């Protein structure tokens, strides 16, 4: 469906947003529980005592490991458990620069599309459920700008832009699905490369061999 959602029953829209938020909170709680369990298991088994051992463990899983990482990374955009920036950095650390960046790219694109679709369905209620009221008021004004598509494209290409918020706003605009997908597919790699290279360069000075 192209274009923003029609203005329907505001009460129904708010109810949908509340249901989504309740499910999101439940998913976040389960995510944290799973993450804590994985960390405890990793420490107990020795897999988390070094990056090299963790990589060796993941390599034994074959293609399943990066696929699961991609799905988890995409879900992070909808049900955030840890900051998305941490998930992006984890890709190259766990799987190497090529496979890791490719998996992070796929995860980011899938997650962005999911947020865009949710915004189309829930409308401004999604913004109210996900972000602070002050943030919503400040950013909603961007939708009135006739150059919103150009502004969105610039934001997607920048490494530190708030991706989830940008995709929510795009879902509220008249941007077509085709336009959204093309912009994300073509521009997001630049942001990922700049961000990961910059952060990993700094981290490698503090933790030598982290990206080796």
From TrEMBL:
Sequence ranges assigned to domain VTT in this UniProt record: 82-198
Cellular compartments annotated: Cell membrane
Transmembrane regions listed in the UniProt entry: 26-43, 63-82, 94-118, 179-203
GO cellular component: plasma membrane
Membrane-topology annotation of the record: Multi-pass membrane protein
Keyword Nucleus tagged: no
Zinc-finger among keywords: no
Keyword set, alphabetical order: Cell membrane, Membrane, Transmembrane, Transmembrane helix
A Pfam short name: VTT_dom
Family label: Belongs to the TVP38/TMEM64 family.
Protein name per UniProt: TVP38/TMEM64 family membrane protein
Organism name: Serinicoccus chungangensis
């Amino acid at each position: 469906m192209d274009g923003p959602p029609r203005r329907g029953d505001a009460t129904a829209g708010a109810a949908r947003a509340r249901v989504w938020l309740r499910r999101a909170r439940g998913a976040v709680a389960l995510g944290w529980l799973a993450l804590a369990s994985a960390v405890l298991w990793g420490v107990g088994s020795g897999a988390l005592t070094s990056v090299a051992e963790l990589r060796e463990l993941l390599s034994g899983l074959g293609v399943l490991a990066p696929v699961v990482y991609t799905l988890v990374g995409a879900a992070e955009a909808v049900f955030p458990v840890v900051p998305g920036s941490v998930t992006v950095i984890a890709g190259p650390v766990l799987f190497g620069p090529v496979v890791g960046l490719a998996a992070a790219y796929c995860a980011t694109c899938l997650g962005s599309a999911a947020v865009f679709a949710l915004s189309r369905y829930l409308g401004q209620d999604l913004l109210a459920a996900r972000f602070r009221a002050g943030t919503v008021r400040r950013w909603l004004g961007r939708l009135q700008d006739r150059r919103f598509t150009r502004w969105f494209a610039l934001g997607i290409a920048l490494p530190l832009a708030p991706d989830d918020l940008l995709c929510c706003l795009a879902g509220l605009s008249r941007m077509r699905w085709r336009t959204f997908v093309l912009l994300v597919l073509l521009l997001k790699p630049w942001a990922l490369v700049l961000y990961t290279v910059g952060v990993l360069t700094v981290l490698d000075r503090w933790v030598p061999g982290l990206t080796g």
